[in-house]
Batch of 2 targets.
Target 1
Amino acid sequence: MDKSKIKILVVDDERGLCAGVQEALRREGYQVDAADGAAGALKRVEERLYNLVLSDVKMPGLSGLDLLTQVKAKSHDTFFIMMTAYGTVENAVEAMKQGAYDYLTKPLDMQRLRALVHKALEFQAVVAENSELRLRLQKRSEPSPILGESEAMRHVARLIDEVANSEVTVLIEGESGTGKELVARAIHLKSTRREQPFVSVNCAALPEPLVESELFGHVRGAFTGAVATKPGRFQLADGGTLFLDEVGDLCAKGQGDLLRVLEDGTFRSVGATELTHVNVRVVAATNKKLQEAVAAGKFREDLFYRLQIVPILLPPLRERAEDIPLLIDRFFEHFSAKHKRRRKRVAGEALQLCQRFSWPGNVRQLRNVVERLILTHRRGTVEVGDLPDFLRAHDQGATTFTGRAGMSLAEVEKLLIRQTLTHVTDNREEAAKVLGISRRSLQYKLKQYGLLKGSEADTAE
């Protein structure tokens, strides 16, 4: 257990006692905050995730039991140790019935306090081995996968909210690095299946002879080397969500097997004589254009339509350059805390260069660059010269327009407006002059192409 990563909150209206406990635990190496009442504690819990709260039972206003109830409702994984005078031990016992780990009587024995804190945190670490708990903790500590004020990402966020609690299959399409698995996990975590397993399988990594066994399992003796019965991914995901990554690379036989189980939820394990029924929600993802694969005879048309009941298209980062400053800011915040480094900022010119770059690796590539800067850059401000060589070498300058053959005129106009506002000037009046149109026309086109941000888009609707 790394004590330096453990966060503890001490709550007591006796400020002297509160400060004493805080100091004693800090000497043990823990991160310790203090609050002199439940109201202040609730405010701190809103701002930070605590492993453990040590709270007095009787306090003015909200009691320690009230505090426990409200904190547990928001952060079920936070442990509580109650501190109480001899006359209120019954209240501490009641708190344990409500979910507290244990209690201490006043005056406090600091040696017993340290031992009980250590014991509680060890037990919490054991509980944290549960995969679903790890997933919840990760959700709180990782930046949200759905970051961005661009209309494209607002649309993705709306779709996730709309489909999460349904049972329909979802097909997530997008280039590598756009965050397809993160979107799948977001759908799972917002659904009624959130407490059940989330199982991921990379279809591109499944050798054709093993596809059936990997997906549906096998019984002992089904084939040479099958020395024991092994469940497949569908059995492991029963009750939860199965994420089929790179489903476009699934072999022909695997496509047929998948279609059958999607129809009625039943399959037969390799070597088994009886059918198995599972309750699994399937979310698939691909970086291929499946419609083109269907037309070329490389992907089953009936499976394509069965998977694509709700399609979610993740745009590449180059098509939402306006989201890059927000992504960089959140990644700096996350990695500064993770690696215990000073928070950094990106100078204006360096930020513009990041927005001009096409990011072939998408959000994953941007995230890796930010983490590298956190670890290797010592100064508080990142200038152009501090950016990786590939960024500076590929900078085409703020006045260069990049498009691709086959784009419609509307797509060209949308891209030109976006790049002008991103790379030339974010002043609407100046941008309109550069584009040779009126400010009113520019405002109309921003609305038409979904380029308004946040509250602007809500107001326009």
Target 2
Amino acid sequence: MLEALKNTAKNAVGALLTEGADKASVSVYHTVTHEFNVDGGEFSLFRTLFDKKLVMECLKDGRKGTVSQNRYDDETIASEAKSCLGSAASAMQDDCWDFAPVTENEDFVQGELKPDTERLFLRCRELLADISARYPKILLEQAIFQHKETTSARANSNGVLFSEHKGCYEIMLMFSGHEGEKASSFFVSMASTPSLDKPFIELGSFADDLKNVEKQIESESVEGKFEGTMVLMPGCVRDLIGTLLMSFASDQGLLSGTSPWKDSLGEQVADERVTISLAPLDERIVCGKRVTGEDFRAENFDIIKEGRLNAFALSLYCANKLGLERGLNDSDSMIIAPGDKSLEEIIASIDRGIIVGRFSGGAPSSNGDFSGVAKNSFLIENGRLGPALSETMIAGNMAAMLKNLRAISKEQVADGSMVLPYMAFDGITVSGK
């Protein structure tokens, strides 16, 4: 399979050059997914899915064309090569488009390539029993348990030829808390693992998420408005900090010139305790990307190091356009360095604030202002965790938030895709009724 995909990618590059492309890049994927589904707490489905994908890109006279298909037989490749050149002919001319030069080609293998479906089923059944015994007020509305085996190859006309063969298990739970007529809002929790060695209840933040949702069956509203401290649970750190990086440090904000950090490379943009990395090669990241979408070998790098803006997460195109360095990978495998205080110590230091598990709000403004609804949240008063909250709004500024850091927890949650702590920020406006 692997050698066949590599030959397919090379042949597709050749087809693009034959049609007149100046440069060409092709990626080919084959994925096999074995999946158990649970609905309403009961097993409902077992299936095996097969997926193919072909992506062809070409450059012609500074214009870029792209096509994709779910087949990659010879006839499809020949037809799509013509379509790709046609796509380029109608595109805007821009000499900043390019593909990676050849360095050292490599084949990457990661994870458990073939599923143990019998053991997977036993782990699934074990998780259902654990949830029922430990969290009796939880209704598991849906669960999806998968093993994904992905084989892929990338080739370009500069001589690049990479392949990846990886297999991992992925778990998605959607659940809510119920007691009589009362119910919490739903919550989604996910994790991935390279093997079936651990019970699923021990993965990611499943245990904490289930416990917190049970507590949210009974909730209260905050009276009035106050400025206090916001503690983000790791899942919410992923969402808010990920949005911040997309707006301030990646193509979107930098190409438009709206990023507050556009002229801040090397400068302090956060508290010195903050180090944020994109690190798909970290051992805690399950089957992390080894090759970028522009044919480079992926490398770990720090976006913020000890509070200073160390690098931007730019594509090759935007780096060329702006005269800056490209990001060394294009993954979302975010790792934030831990702090020196436990979550318990952080909460004990807060007079009044809120701990947030999920945030529902629109994109921040160009200067970083944000506002939205705090979901799956709890009040903090006088150093103690208070009641679950409903109808609570939070607002602040993302750029200021990183400088107004109160603390980062020692604890980190590693869910297979990211490694994140709890983070506490001062100066956040909390509004209730």
